[in-house]
Records
---
Amino acid sequence: MRRPMHRRDVLRMTAVAGAASVLTLEGVSFAHADTEGTDETTRRINGRLPAGAPDYVYVPVEVPAGVREIAVSYTYDKPTVPAGTQGNACDIGIFDERGTDLGGAGFRGWSGGARTEFVVGAEHATPGYLAGPVRPGTWHVVLGPYTVAPQGLAYEVTVTLRHGTAGATPKPVYPPRRARGRGRAWYRGDNHLHSVHSDGKRTPAEIAAAARAAGLDWITTTEHNTTSSHGAWEGLWGDDLLILTGEEVTTRNGHVLALGTDPGTFIDWRYRARDGAFGRFARRIRQTGGLVVPAHPYATCVGCNWKFGYEEADAVEVWNGPWTTDDEMAVAAWDAMLVASRGRAWLPAMGNSDAHREPQVVGLPQTVVLADDLSREALQAGLRAGHSWIAESKAIDLSFTATSERGAHAGIGERLRAGRDAERTAAVAVRLKVTGVTGGTAVFITDQGPLFTTPVPADGRVEWHTSPARSAYVRAEVRHPSGAMAALTNPIWLGQP
């Protein structure tokens, strides 16, 4: 049936407290039919959204009893637009009879713009969606008009209910929180990865194989706005590979990694910075065992720039995939935050691949963390403390230390204390040893900026001297002859905070 947007729909646009503006359309009703087997009923909904449509458009679907599976497909037009103007892009997902409240229990799946159709049933669901009973009540298909052309966005949503007896829902098998590891050691991880459960092309098995080939000790699954991948790794972890669960919370004002949350934890994404809701969900991430890590803060895609500030962050992703100018900006902004923090509650840096498909490389880059063992808690403790550095690949290794004249020692993320004035002016030897980089340049950066730059010698050893009075901190970068980053460290702090 043709379903244009009427004036009464505009009046039903709401800016719910703590949520993005939404539009709820008239409901779709399915007359109850006492059917058996594979009988099914289909309804189609057509409409047009204007430019400036709300972030989320809900289509209520009245689901009767006796439905074993709900199938949804959709299409929308993509008219030609003037150069420099955004065209149509529309995401899709679904909430069940428990409702669409922000952070509520009704979430049943999201595929963004990666799929044009999906199925939700008790026995199985399309990747990105959660299997479970199709209970009677008002479900909501949700459209996310990410960008809308000046001509508007014409859509058609097809909903099919398949009747019959529902089967049993398999109990998900989640990865353990600990692997054997090597005791206290440096562990390599990639904590921003996408599979077929969102907009990636690799299966979980292919990602696990790529992680092992990249020399990683652990990974985190971070699909866009869904937890469906959390139970998809059975048989893929082992003593050599820890798999943590998480989510890339993909809002209209930036993306944030919920890194290492409890399996099955869903973090809502339907808000903007102006809505004041992010703090609530940042707390939810931490309450469920995760870290709050803003991702690719200077990425150029629509909605990818980070707009929520860093007060709630535990770390920040300054290097995302192959090195680009976006990463250069992220590192510069992060360095400015180090200066402003004066070493108090400073924000550590990390890097991840954000790999979606071939030829994108899992583990390019990877974060190398000093942890007491290969477990969620130990790795997160190392990340929070900044006892970590970022490598382009497993081929690169480094150590970075600072030593005072009296023999006091500090490593990455630590503080070399100096109390008296004489200690503040005393020399500190800063030493870098790097392997796996040919023809590269080492740069030592302080709160004043780059103070020492030198070609990496054949033995990979670089030494420089400063003092706490001269440098509030020192961090190291190793760059290829092209200027692209090969490795960078978190800072060593010098003197009192």
---
Amino acid sequence: MENKNGKDPGAAREAGPSACDACGNKECSAASRRSNENDQEFAERRRLESRLCRIRRKIVVLSGKGGVGKSTVAVNIAAALHAVGRRVGLLDVDIHGPSVPTMLGLEGMTLDSGPDGLLPADAGGIAVMSLGFLLPHPDEAVIWRGPLKMGAIKQFLMDVAWGDLDWLVIDSPPGTGDEPLSVCQLIPGITGAVIVTTPQKVAAVDVRKSITFCRRLGIPVLGVVENMSGFACPKCGEVTPIFSRGGGRGIAESMNVPFLGSIPIDPAIAASGDDGRPYVRTFADSPTAAVMRGIIAPLQALEAEAK
């Protein structure tokens, strides 16, 4: 089946098994039932793990506060990874404010089903899933409590035909509540987290909470990104500080985690997001795009270490 873009995002992916019997690994965590599982729980876990075992690495993009540009960073990380030849998926688990469809020009997309499950939308080769695709109207408010949120996230992981991916980028809502906790509990062995902040102290202080959250759950912190770090003049390119500066770098250094770079306020970033075009693709030759590509350097280093 084709989606609205006229492409079949599942065409290049082999159909995967509905359970882990084909794996052949007797030590696989899905090979045997846990002592506290009933038949349904066992079947669901096997189906979930059969999806996840085909995704080599999973990263979660977090922020301590809302409004720091976390979704913009997640979208451009996915686009930068795809640009260097990686097979990439992007999962938007911001239940109450799914903005990824807008940023990728996928508003109004209706998803199709294939023999192995729901087919993700295609954004120039990036497989995308978001609750925004399933809402009857874009103005519809999602009024859910924790169990419903976890159930939806489980379905995104278990019932979507992600296929074989090198990276799954997960755009999580701000804070350390139900959605990020559900993702981290459902996905064993998350590769790491990228934490986004802005320079002001009021935002950067919450980075500590996100780092603590990751450490308590055993998730490596790949680094901190400081977004909106000064204003980049669209004419001369000079960056002028608007807010206080260096908050993200300072917190990263004090918490002993990597600092991945400072992204300035660039009017073209907002325009590209509104137009549904990843900035790192549309303005690939700009200095800001170079900063965004630098964010994936530690991710590429992980790939090199695994060889």
---
Amino acid sequence: MNKLKFYSTLLTCFIIITLTNAQNQNSIRLNAMIEQGMKDWQIPGLSAIVVKDGEVVFQKSYGVRDKEANLPVDNNTLFAMASTTKAIVAMSLGMLVDQGKIKWTDKVRDHLPAFKLSDVYVSADARVKDLLTHNLGIENADLLWVLDSMSTAQTVERFSLANKVYPLRGGYTYQNIMFVIAGQLIEAVSGHHWTDFVSQNIFKRLEMTRTRAKSTDIISAGNYTYPYFNDSEDGIVRMNHTFSDQIGSAGMIWSCTNDIGNYLRFLVNNGVYKGDTLLRPATFDYLFKPQSMLPDEGAYPTNALTKPKWNTYGLGWFQQDYKGTKLDFHTGSLSGLVAIAGLVRDHNMAVYVFANLDHAELRHAIMYKAIDLFVFGDDSRDWHAETFKLYEEIQQKELDTLKKRKDGRVMNTKPSLNINQYAGIFKNQMLGKLTVSVKNEKLNLNFNDYRSYDAEHWHFDTFITSKNQRSRSESLFNFILDQSGKAESVEIFGKKFSRE
């Protein structure tokens, strides 16, 4: 009997050593890919973590959080969770479901009587879960917070003017403002602002001590990253932080990989953390139930590499099939900052990546490589090389489009009016006020005394905005003249602003 125990113990030790060696090899391979990827993508700083069967099997931070001061990234460095915030907001609603305070199928107006969209029927029939599924039929209205810093209530009120573009639950349009309304609903039902609710009911219980629900709180927390952009002309450029807490429940939480490790443990353990059940099993499962079918144009470019048979959206999660299993994931993107969360529930595995470079799509390569290594033991694909080539081709198409725009410019034309005659105040009912002024013989566009762009003449009555630390893209806009020759309106970002 003692001999049997000895051999049993020996076998157990052998298995543990074998698994440990395999995990170490997987970590070495993943690390090598990340280091090469950071060089090729020119990413200043990155932090990644992988959890398998409740244990951290990979965690490492790379590069710098502040390129100018050469301050390193560590596992406590705060990065923007951006739209991976959405899953946490969905979980908060799930907690209210568990408390019996709401049902997923409740009408939004049952809890927010003032809820109003541009379509009467959609306003009346919208359900709680519809706030999380991007299929209520309303156009994207992110310009509301990009061009203004008004309050959450004002943002939602203006959003009621956004156009209906397809029937209720009859399509898909990624919609941040609906998650803002979800945050309002959390407050209306719980009596606590959504930031306080998630801080007490999720962050505290998951021991996420450095995570901040308000983006502006990172300043006092310290050890946070700066955002960067790889400009084709100017190289790596520091961007301004996006502190848009008026739409915070759509994507303004900041966290670090040490905290995210606890969050991933909670995810792979089906809503339980250290014996604390945050969500009932049925409620937790419902978060990952497919709700919306994604059209081809709504899917990620990496579909060209993974070739999924289906793409759906749950409650705060994108979903697709991968190697015969279901992958739940979500990206997060703010100006100069990215994140990605991936969860393979059937194999108790989760991965999360932060980076401080705009559209650093190495994040996708890390997610799929981590899944291949730690779930399937497969090191056959060079995910970095494939992803880099894919996005290099996408970038080249974008550059070709810009070249066509440049080639289409009619040279040696003049504006119809004296530059000072374009100045004035223009209004858009949903987006607010645009003040056009003249500075140093150039136009300046100021939206709502919040977002400002300098602009130069392009051709005829069309002008182009200049790059700045909030936006590295240049946008064309044009003035429409009335019959008397007066500049009566401005068309920019696909919207029309009429002279006041």
